[in-house]
Design goal:
By secondary structure, the chain is mostly helical. The chain contains 14 helices and no strands. It has helices spanning about 10-30, 35-45, 50-55, 60-65, 80-85, 95-100, 105-110, 125-145, 150-165, 170-180, 180-190, 200-215, 230-245, 255-260. Helix 9 (about 150-165) packs across helix 11, helix 9 (about 150-165) runs antiparallel to helix 13 (about 230-245) and helix 11 crosses helix 13. The protein is globular and about 50 Å long.
């Protein structure tokens, strides 16, 4: 049996435990035979893949490729994934540019099937980079099987860092946050926004995100979360509000109230 992450508590207590033990737990998980087999197969064969059709025709390869971007649920949507990859990103009409979930854009850009005469699968370190991302995501999935909130919390720093490093406006970064489902869920939960929030005009959503962010964290900018202190505040507020929404008893009402008060 493969190693399963241990999360003995929910909320802030569980998060603190996971932070202390993450390195050891992730190493134990990645050392499992199933992960090792998938990683080895991908690294040995990715150099032979020169078209999107070849990639989607190999379910085992596709599983790793999709897993690296948190898109494992699309494993059976081979026609859709092939279209995303073949269109690339350089043409404004490309499918990836029309999808609200920007993880597809990142995958299409990284593989380069539709953008370059020679795809990036032919670059020597492409396989290593992809399997590193895959292993990280697989560990997050395993964590999510124990506690979905912890899975979202673990991926928060990585996903935000990627957006923060982009050379674009603050509005553009917020739109990227809105186009990343896991990030969007964390921010909406932390800022106390209702599920119906996503149905309003996109520009209004931007204004609300900026206003709420300034109220709770002192700044309306996405870049503020490059500060580890601000990132931790966001994480703890998300966990506290999520527990309230789910009626969890893992934290005392006093602990939850204190967490919320510290961020108001």
């Amino acid at each position: 049996m493969s190693f399963q992450p241990v999360i003995p508590f929910g909320g802030a207590a569980g998060w603190a435990f996971l932070q202390r033990t993450k390195e050891a737990q992730q190493h134990a998980f990645e050392s499992g035979a199933a992960v090792q087999r998938d990683v080895q197969y991908f690294q040995e064969n990715i150099g032979n893949i020169t078209t999107a059709e070849q990639l989607v025709s190999d379910r085992r390869m596709l599983s790793v490729a999709l897993g690296a971007y948190g898109l494992s649920d699309d494993i059976n949507n081979t026609y859709f994934i092939r279209k995303v990859l073949e269109d690339g990103t350089l043409d404004s009409d490309a499918l990836a540019n029309k999808l609200s979930d920007k993880r597809y854009y990142e995958m299409a850009k990284d593989f380069g099937f539709g953008d370059y005469s020679i795809p990036r699968t032919q670059i020597s370190d492409f396989g290593a980079w992809t399997v590193d991302a895959y292993k990280e995501r697989q560990f997050e999935i395993a964590v999510g099987n124990q506690d979905q909130d912890m899975r979202l919390a673990i991926g928060l720093e990585r996903d935000l860092s990627y957006i923060i490093d982009k050379s674009t406006t603050d509005a553009g970064k917020w739109y990227s946050v809105m186009g990343n489902p896991p990030l969007r869920q964390v921010l909406e939960t932390a800022l106390g926004l209702p599920k119906s929030f996503a149905t309003i005009d996109i520009d209004q959503q931007l204004e609300v995100f900026q206003e709420k962010s300034e109220r709770y964290f002192g700044s309306s900018k996405v870049d503020q979360f490059s500060d580890p202190v601000k990132l931790e505040e966001l994480t703890r507020l998300f966990l506290a509000r999520s527990q309230i929404a789910s009626g969890s008893a893992a934290l005392s009402s006093n602990s939850i109230a204190l967490t919320l008060l510290q961020n108001t």
